[in-house]
Specification:
The protein is built from three helices and no strands. It is mostly helical. The protein has a single domain (about 5-100), classed as Orthogonal Bundle (Helix Hairpins), CATH 1.10.287. It starts with a helix and ends in a 13-residue tail after the last helix.
């Protein structure tokens, strides 16, 4: 079965749209981080798909995707550390409550 470029891009566009919607509408920091990861994963899908269709036999898109996954893992670890420290300080991870951390 010959899959076209559009069959890969439509789920990626839907994932990115869901990530943007979640990022803009959520108040919980963990939900915002999950939405951000969803957007990053849709970009990784685009890297792989465009590499496969534009440059078959080459692996630049795959390497960019692996690099982006490594950066996303580091970013997630850092974000979770920040969220844990915020929770310890104010016992809440709601974005509206963050202003309590100001002096």
């Amino acid at each position: 079965m010959n899959l076209t470029l559009l069959m890969y891009l439509i789920p990626s566009i839907i994932m990115f749209g869901c990530g943007v919607y979640g990022f803009l509408t959520r108040k919980n920091m963990i939900a915002i981080m999950i939405s951000l990861e969803l957007m990053l994963n849709s970009v990784d899908i685009n890297f792989v798909v465009f590499n496969r269709f534009l440059f078959p036999g080459q692996f630049e898109g795959m390497f960019f995707t692996l690099f982006a996954i490594a950066i996303a893992a580091a970013e997630t670890a850092l974000a979770l550390a920040i969220i844990i420290n915020v929770f310890r300080a104010i016992k809440n991870v709601d974005i509206n409550q963050i202003n309590k951390l100001k002096f």
